[in-house]
Design a protein that fits this description.
By secondary structure, the chain is mainly beta. Helices cover 14% and strands 44% of the residues.
Length: 79
């Protein structure tokens, strides 16, 4: 891969039936440190928060496996 890194922050809440739903569209973040810092700040406000990264070459559509940087609470399984 070309060495680009995709860094994402996502948060989840529970609906009236207790199902996890995205609190917002996943956000791309500039650095791993910023993703971890923002995730920690959000952890008390949502049912679950995860910040993750993966090596990426979007031009070729190639993505490496996700690496969790920070996780708290309930989050869905990552593919």
């Amino acid at each position: 891969m070309a060495g680009a890194k995709l860094i994402v922050l996502a948060a989840f809440d529970k609906d009236d039936e207790g199902n996890l739903v995205p609190a917002f569209d996943p956000r791309q973040v500039d650095t791993e440190e910023r993703a971890k810092r923002e995730a920690r700040l959000m952890a008390d406000s949502h049912a679950g928060v995860v910040a993750w990264s993966r090596d990426a070459d979007p031009g070729l559509g190639e993505y490496g496996p996700p690496v969790v940087l920070f996780q708290a609470g309930d989050v869905p399984e990552m593919d």
